[in-house]
Amino acid sequence: VVPGRTDPDLLNEHIARYDFAKTLVGGRCVLDAGCGVGYGSERLARCASLVTAFDIALDPLFESRSTYGVMNVNECQGDCARLPFLSGSFDVVVAFEAIEHLQDPGTFLEEATRVLLPSGQLIVSTPNRDYYAESRSEPNPFHVCEFSYAEFREKLEKYFEHVTFFFENHNNAITFTPLEVKGIRATLEPAVSKPE
Q1: Cα separations (Å) of 33 from 19, 47, 49, 114?
Q2: In b/e form, how buried is each residue of 37-75, taking b as 16+ CB within 10 angstroms?
Q3: How far apart are CA 172 and CA 191, in angstroms?
Q4: Sign of the dihedral through C-alpha 27, 121, 99, 152
Q5: Under 8 Å CB-to-CB from 20, ≥6 apart: which residues?
Q6: Cα 11 to Cα 31: distance, rounded to the nearest angstrom
């Protein structure tokens, strides 16, 4: 996903995930695993104390640095299966639409638990295989491992004691809804009309 070169609807889905995560990273040290060209790292950096933009591909990291050049974002190249960071290095690990591209998602989840502080959070998203299959005419050739909801919950619960699910859906706005509702928090951005 590259801003300006991606379908606006798809781009908005991806940006919405980062805007959702922004509310959870204030003043915290964040790893953005599988960051691509860094548009999300830049958004997280508006609230976080420090963001490490991490991707296996070097070219997107160069693009991130030249496009955004944010002071509290460090770019780092490497593999999500072998995170090159000390244990307990991050308050938050963000991994949006990355885990389905990995040969062994469990290795990444294990690494995420290692680099997180004991009070840390993993914020991860992946397509729901059952819904994704219905909405596509052919499989995504870049996805190595897709999960059903139940499979993803089971996988996460192997590594994390507390797991909460939110579902991202299209309405007249993009929404994140928890599976078990204990309270509702909403953020609405005012509509901006274009000058005539």
Answers
A1: 16, 17, 17, 14
A2: bbbbbbbbbebbebbbbbbbeeebbebbbebbebeebeb
A3: 12
A4: negative
A5: 166, 168, 176
A6: 21
The pTM for the full model equals: 0.82
Which tens digit of pLDDT belongs to each residue from 19-55? 999 999 999 999 999 999 999 999 999 999 999 999 9
Interatomic CA distance for residues 177 and 183, integer angstroms: 10
Q: Which residue from 80, 74, 84 is spatially nearest to 51, judged by alpha carbons?
A: 74
**SS3 for 82?**
coil
Indicate the SS3 state at residue 143. coil
Distance of alpha carbon 186 from alpha carbon 177, whole angstroms:
10
35: exposed, middle or buried (C-beta count within 10 Å: 0-12, 13-18, 19+)? buried
Which residues in 111-138 are b (16+ Cβ under 10 Å) and which e? bbbebbeeebbbbbbbbbbeebeeeeee
- Token pair, residue 193, equals 């009309």
